[in-house]
Design a protein that fits this description.
With 297 residues, the chain is of the alpha/beta class. It contains 8 helices and 10 strands. Strand 2, helix 3 and strand 3 form a beta-alpha-beta unit. The N terminus is likely disordered. The chain binds uridine-5'-diphosphate and manganese (II) ion.
Protein backbone atom coordinates (compact mmCIF):
# COMPACT_ATOMS: atom_id res chain seq x y z
CA UNK A 1 0.00 0.00 0.00
CA UNK A 2 3.05 2.23 0.01
CA UNK A 3 2.74 3.38 3.62
CA UNK A 4 5.82 2.95 5.76
CA UNK A 5 5.05 1.75 9.31
CA UNK A 6 7.04 4.51 11.00
CA UNK A 7 5.00 7.04 9.06
CA UNK A 8 1.77 5.36 10.09
CA UNK A 9 2.80 5.74 13.71
CA UNK A 10 3.50 9.42 13.25
CA UNK A 11 0.23 9.87 11.38
CA UNK A 12 -1.65 8.43 14.31
CA UNK A 13 0.03 10.92 16.59
CA UNK A 14 -0.83 13.89 14.38
CA UNK A 15 -3.18 16.14 16.33
CA UNK A 16 -4.90 17.96 13.52
CA UNK A 17 -5.26 15.46 10.78
CA UNK A 18 -8.04 13.57 12.46
CA UNK A 19 -8.55 9.98 11.43
CA UNK A 20 -5.83 9.80 8.82
CA UNK A 21 -6.20 7.24 6.04
CA UNK A 22 -3.06 7.30 3.93
CA UNK A 23 -4.23 4.10 2.27
CA UNK A 24 -7.19 6.02 0.81
CA UNK A 25 -4.82 7.38 -1.86
CA UNK A 26 -2.65 4.42 -2.88
CA UNK A 27 -1.66 6.13 -6.14
CA UNK A 28 0.29 8.96 -4.46
CA UNK A 29 3.05 9.29 -1.87
CA UNK A 30 1.37 9.91 1.48
CA UNK A 31 4.41 9.95 3.72
CA UNK A 32 7.87 11.43 3.47
CA UNK A 33 11.04 9.39 3.97
CA UNK A 34 11.31 10.97 7.46
CA UNK A 35 7.80 9.90 8.43
CA UNK A 36 5.79 13.11 8.03
CA UNK A 37 2.35 12.92 6.43
CA UNK A 38 1.82 14.32 2.94
CA UNK A 39 -1.75 15.53 3.05
CA UNK A 40 -3.89 14.58 0.03
CA UNK A 41 -7.62 14.92 -0.39
CA UNK A 42 -9.33 11.89 1.17
CA UNK A 43 -6.50 11.05 3.58
CA UNK A 44 -7.91 13.02 6.51
CA UNK A 45 -11.20 13.73 8.21
CA UNK A 46 -11.81 17.49 8.04
CA UNK A 47 -14.38 17.35 10.85
CA UNK A 48 -12.00 15.74 13.33
CA UNK A 49 -9.34 18.31 12.46
CA UNK A 50 -11.85 21.11 12.96
CA UNK A 51 -12.98 19.79 16.32
CA UNK A 52 -9.40 19.45 17.52
CA UNK A 53 -8.59 23.03 16.52
CA UNK A 54 -11.77 24.36 18.12
CA UNK A 55 -11.04 22.55 21.39
CA UNK A 56 -7.61 24.14 21.48
CA UNK A 57 -9.17 27.58 20.97
CA UNK A 58 -6.49 28.49 18.46
CA UNK A 59 -5.83 31.76 16.73
CA UNK A 60 -4.38 31.20 13.29
CA UNK A 61 -2.49 33.93 11.45
CA UNK A 62 -2.42 34.41 7.69
CA UNK A 63 0.18 36.80 6.29
CA UNK A 64 0.20 38.23 2.79
CA UNK A 65 2.15 40.98 1.04
CA UNK A 66 0.45 43.29 -1.46
CA UNK A 67 2.98 45.84 -2.66
CA UNK A 68 2.71 47.98 -5.80
CA UNK A 69 0.18 46.80 -8.35
CA UNK A 70 -0.28 43.45 -6.61
CA UNK A 71 -2.61 45.25 -4.20
CA UNK A 72 -5.29 46.25 -6.73
CA UNK A 73 -4.79 43.16 -8.81
CA UNK A 74 -5.01 40.33 -6.27
CA UNK A 75 -5.69 41.28 -2.66
CA UNK A 76 -9.47 41.57 -2.69
CA UNK A 77 -10.05 38.16 -4.24
CA UNK A 78 -7.42 36.57 -2.02
CA UNK A 79 -9.10 37.87 1.15
CA UNK A 80 -12.68 37.26 -0.02
CA UNK A 81 -11.97 33.66 -0.87
CA UNK A 82 -9.96 33.24 2.36
CA UNK A 83 -13.10 34.30 4.21
CA UNK A 84 -14.94 31.43 2.53
CA UNK A 85 -12.29 28.72 2.71
CA UNK A 86 -9.37 29.46 5.07
CA UNK A 87 -9.81 27.96 8.56
CA UNK A 88 -13.59 28.44 8.52
CA UNK A 89 -15.01 28.46 12.05
CA UNK A 90 -11.61 29.20 13.67
CA UNK A 91 -10.21 32.44 15.05
CA UNK A 92 -8.16 34.04 12.28
CA UNK A 93 -6.02 37.15 12.11
CA UNK A 94 -4.94 38.39 8.70
CA UNK A 95 -1.76 40.43 8.44
CA UNK A 96 -1.54 42.41 5.20
CA UNK A 97 1.78 44.10 4.47
CA UNK A 98 1.61 46.97 2.02
CA UNK A 99 3.14 50.38 1.38
CA UNK A 100 -0.36 51.88 0.87
CA UNK A 101 -2.64 51.03 3.80
CA UNK A 102 -5.08 53.68 2.52
CA UNK A 103 -5.70 51.71 -0.66
CA UNK A 104 -6.86 48.54 1.11
CA UNK A 105 -9.98 46.92 -0.38
CA UNK A 106 -12.93 46.63 1.98
CA UNK A 107 -13.62 43.00 2.75
CA UNK A 108 -16.42 41.96 5.12
CA UNK A 109 -15.00 39.66 7.80
CA UNK A 110 -16.87 36.88 9.57
CA UNK A 111 -17.10 36.57 13.37
CA UNK A 112 -13.80 35.86 15.10
CA UNK A 113 -11.81 37.16 12.15
CA UNK A 114 -9.65 40.29 12.20
CA UNK A 115 -7.47 42.12 9.73
CA UNK A 116 -4.35 44.08 10.54
CA UNK A 117 -2.52 46.20 8.03
CA UNK A 118 1.21 46.80 8.43
CA UNK A 119 3.09 49.37 6.43
CA UNK A 120 6.24 48.29 4.58
CA UNK A 121 8.56 50.25 2.32
CA UNK A 122 8.28 49.45 -1.37
CA UNK A 123 11.45 47.90 -2.74
CA UNK A 124 12.17 48.91 -6.32
CA UNK A 125 12.74 45.48 -7.89
CA UNK A 126 10.01 42.84 -7.64
CA UNK A 127 12.66 40.31 -6.61
CA UNK A 128 13.53 42.55 -3.66
CA UNK A 129 9.85 42.86 -2.65
CA UNK A 130 9.62 39.09 -2.64
CA UNK A 131 12.90 38.56 -0.75
CA UNK A 132 12.29 41.34 1.81
CA UNK A 133 9.30 39.36 3.07
CA UNK A 134 11.51 37.05 5.14
CA UNK A 135 12.99 39.89 7.19
CA UNK A 136 9.62 41.60 7.65
CA UNK A 137 7.91 38.37 8.66
CA UNK A 138 10.66 37.62 11.14
CA UNK A 139 10.08 40.98 12.83
CA UNK A 140 6.28 40.56 12.79
CA UNK A 141 6.52 37.08 14.31
CA UNK A 142 8.64 38.56 17.08
CA UNK A 143 5.96 41.21 17.68
CA UNK A 144 2.17 41.33 17.80
CA UNK A 145 1.56 38.60 15.22
CA UNK A 146 3.69 36.23 17.27
CA UNK A 147 1.79 37.06 20.45
CA UNK A 148 -1.65 36.78 18.82
CA UNK A 149 -1.32 33.60 16.79
CA UNK A 150 -0.44 30.03 17.74
CA UNK A 151 0.06 28.93 14.11
CA UNK A 152 0.69 31.08 11.05
CA UNK A 153 0.52 30.55 7.30
CA UNK A 154 2.53 32.84 5.01
CA UNK A 155 1.25 33.09 1.45
CA UNK A 156 1.71 34.81 -1.91
CA UNK A 157 -1.14 37.12 -2.88
CA UNK A 158 -1.31 36.13 -6.56
CA UNK A 159 -3.66 33.21 -5.91
CA UNK A 160 -7.15 32.59 -4.56
CA UNK A 161 -8.79 29.91 -2.44
CA UNK A 162 -11.02 27.46 -4.32
CA UNK A 163 -11.64 24.83 -1.65
CA UNK A 164 -11.40 24.14 2.08
CA UNK A 165 -8.01 25.03 3.59
CA UNK A 166 -8.65 23.99 7.18
CA UNK A 167 -6.91 22.84 10.38
CA UNK A 168 -5.83 19.59 8.73
CA UNK A 169 -3.03 21.73 7.26
CA UNK A 170 -1.73 22.80 10.70
CA UNK A 171 1.46 21.45 12.26
CA UNK A 172 4.66 22.70 13.93
CA UNK A 173 6.13 23.20 10.45
CA UNK A 174 4.38 22.88 7.10
CA UNK A 175 5.79 23.01 3.56
CA UNK A 176 3.99 22.99 0.21
CA UNK A 177 4.95 20.69 -2.69
CA UNK A 178 5.45 22.81 -5.82
CA UNK A 179 2.81 21.88 -8.38
CA UNK A 180 5.22 22.18 -11.32
CA UNK A 181 7.83 19.87 -9.87
CA UNK A 182 6.25 17.28 -7.57
CA UNK A 183 6.52 14.45 -10.10
CA UNK A 184 9.98 15.34 -11.39
CA UNK A 185 13.08 13.27 -10.82
CA UNK A 186 15.05 14.53 -7.83
CA UNK A 187 18.17 15.48 -9.75
CA UNK A 188 16.12 17.76 -12.05
CA UNK A 189 14.62 19.82 -9.21
CA UNK A 190 15.53 23.53 -9.45
CA UNK A 191 17.43 23.85 -6.16
CA UNK A 192 20.11 26.52 -5.93
CA UNK A 193 23.33 25.11 -7.41
CA UNK A 194 25.68 28.10 -7.09
CA UNK A 195 28.26 26.86 -4.59
CA UNK A 196 28.80 30.44 -3.34
CA UNK A 197 25.14 30.96 -2.37
CA UNK A 198 23.93 30.29 1.17
CA UNK A 199 21.03 28.42 -0.46
CA UNK A 200 23.21 25.91 -2.30
CA UNK A 201 22.10 22.28 -2.31
CA UNK A 202 24.56 19.60 -3.36
CA UNK A 203 23.55 16.99 -5.91
CA UNK A 204 21.74 14.26 -4.03
CA UNK A 205 20.34 16.68 -1.44
CA UNK A 206 16.68 17.61 -1.36
CA UNK A 207 13.81 15.13 -1.52
CA UNK A 208 11.14 17.56 -2.68
CA UNK A 209 10.99 21.05 -4.17
CA UNK A 210 8.77 23.31 -2.10
CA UNK A 211 6.79 26.35 -3.21
CA UNK A 212 7.41 29.59 -1.32
CA UNK A 213 3.82 30.68 -2.05
CA UNK A 214 2.65 28.68 1.01
CA UNK A 215 4.52 27.82 4.20
CA UNK A 216 3.42 27.66 7.79
CA UNK A 217 3.88 26.40 11.29
CA UNK A 218 4.17 27.48 14.89
CA UNK A 219 5.45 30.96 15.64
CA UNK A 220 8.74 29.56 16.97
CA UNK A 221 9.33 27.39 13.90
CA UNK A 222 8.58 30.28 11.56
CA UNK A 223 10.87 32.59 13.52
CA UNK A 224 13.68 30.10 12.82
CA UNK A 225 12.75 29.71 9.15
CA UNK A 226 12.49 33.45 8.47
CA UNK A 227 15.73 34.17 10.38
CA UNK A 228 17.59 31.54 8.38
CA UNK A 229 16.26 32.79 5.05
CA UNK A 230 16.79 36.48 5.84
CA UNK A 231 20.37 35.70 6.91
CA UNK A 232 21.04 33.69 3.76
CA UNK A 233 19.58 36.42 1.54
CA UNK A 234 21.77 39.05 3.26
CA UNK A 235 24.86 36.82 2.98
CA UNK A 236 24.28 36.38 -0.77
CA UNK A 237 23.61 40.08 -1.28
CA UNK A 238 26.85 41.01 0.50
CA UNK A 239 28.64 38.83 -2.09
CA UNK A 240 26.75 40.24 -5.07
CA UNK A 241 24.75 37.02 -5.50
CA UNK A 242 21.07 36.25 -5.88
CA UNK A 243 19.68 32.73 -5.78
CA UNK A 244 17.96 31.74 -9.04
CA UNK A 245 14.59 31.43 -7.32
CA UNK A 246 15.23 34.14 -4.74
CA UNK A 247 13.65 33.54 -1.31
CA UNK A 248 12.33 30.17 -2.53
CA UNK A 249 15.89 28.87 -2.89
CA UNK A 250 16.64 29.74 0.74
CA UNK A 251 13.32 28.30 1.90
CA UNK A 252 14.17 25.02 0.19
CA UNK A 253 17.55 24.96 1.90
CA UNK A 254 15.98 25.54 5.34
CA UNK A 255 13.32 22.88 4.80
CA UNK A 256 16.02 20.41 3.73
CA UNK A 257 17.99 21.11 6.91
CA UNK A 258 14.89 21.14 9.16
CA UNK A 259 12.45 18.54 7.91
CA UNK A 260 8.83 19.73 8.09
CA UNK A 261 6.30 17.99 10.31
CA UNK A 262 3.71 18.06 7.53
CA UNK A 263 3.79 18.39 3.76
CA UNK A 264 0.87 19.64 1.69
CA UNK A 265 0.15 17.93 -1.62
CA UNK A 266 0.00 20.06 -4.77
CA UNK A 267 -3.79 20.03 -4.36
CA UNK A 268 -3.27 22.74 -1.75
CA UNK A 269 -1.66 25.15 -4.23
CA UNK A 270 -2.35 24.22 -7.82
CA UNK A 271 -1.51 25.97 -11.06
CA UNK A 272 -4.49 25.91 -13.42
CA UNK A 273 -2.08 26.46 -16.33
CA UNK A 274 -0.94 22.85 -15.94
CA UNK A 275 -2.81 20.11 -17.76
CA UNK A 276 -5.25 18.31 -15.47
CA UNK A 277 -3.81 15.35 -13.59
CA UNK A 278 -5.87 12.50 -12.17
CA UNK A 279 -4.32 12.77 -8.70
CA UNK A 280 -5.30 16.43 -8.29
CA UNK A 281 -8.84 16.02 -7.01
CA UNK A 282 -9.80 19.21 -5.27
CA UNK A 283 -7.48 22.22 -5.50
CA UNK A 284 -7.58 24.46 -2.42
CA UNK A 285 -5.64 27.41 -3.80
CA UNK A 286 -5.29 28.31 -7.47
CA UNK A 287 -2.48 30.45 -8.85
CA UNK A 288 -3.49 33.50 -10.81
CA UNK A 289 -2.20 33.57 -14.37
CA UNK A 290 1.26 35.16 -14.50
CA UNK A 291 0.80 38.63 -15.96
CA UNK A 292 4.27 39.87 -15.28
CA UNK A 293 4.36 42.57 -17.93
CA UNK A 294 1.44 44.30 -16.21
CA UNK A 295 2.96 43.98 -12.74
CA UNK A 296 6.69 43.98 -12.93
CA UNK A 297 8.16 46.88 -14.82
N1 LIG B 1 4.92 40.89 -4.18
C1 LIG B 1 4.25 42.12 -4.14
N2 LIG B 1 4.63 43.09 -5.02
C2 LIG B 1 5.63 42.93 -5.93
C3 LIG B 1 6.29 41.68 -5.97
C4 LIG B 1 5.91 40.68 -5.09
O1 LIG B 1 3.34 42.31 -3.35
O2 LIG B 1 5.93 43.86 -6.69
C5 LIG B 1 4.55 39.85 -3.19
C6 LIG B 1 3.20 39.23 -3.52
O3 LIG B 1 2.61 38.76 -2.33
C7 LIG B 1 3.62 38.07 -4.41
C8 LIG B 1 4.89 37.60 -3.72
O4 LIG B 1 5.51 38.81 -3.25
O5 LIG B 1 2.62 37.08 -4.50
C9 LIG B 1 5.89 36.82 -4.60
O6 LIG B 1 6.05 37.45 -5.85
P1 LIG B 1 5.45 36.76 -7.17
O7 LIG B 1 4.13 36.14 -6.85
O8 LIG B 1 5.46 37.77 -8.28
O9 LIG B 1 6.54 35.64 -7.46
P2 LIG B 1 6.31 34.22 -8.17
O10 LIG B 1 5.16 33.53 -7.50
O11 LIG B 1 6.01 34.48 -9.62
O12 LIG B 1 7.62 33.53 -7.96
MN1 LIG C 1 3.35 34.16 -6.66
Amino acid sequence: MGVCPSATMSLLRDKFTGALHPWARPEVLTCTPWGAPIIWDGTFDPDVAKQEATQQNLTIGLTVFAVGRYLEKYLERFLETAEQHFMAGQRVVYYVFTERPGAMPRVALGPGRRLRVERVVRERRWQDVSMARMRTLHAALGGRLGREARFVFCMDVDQHFSGTFGPEALAESVAQLHSWHYHWLRWLLPFERDAHSAAVMARGEGYFYYHAAVFGGSVAALRDLTAHCARGLAWDRARGLEARWHDEGHLNKFVWLHKPAKVLSPEFCWSPDLSPRAEIRRPRLLWAPKEYRLLRD
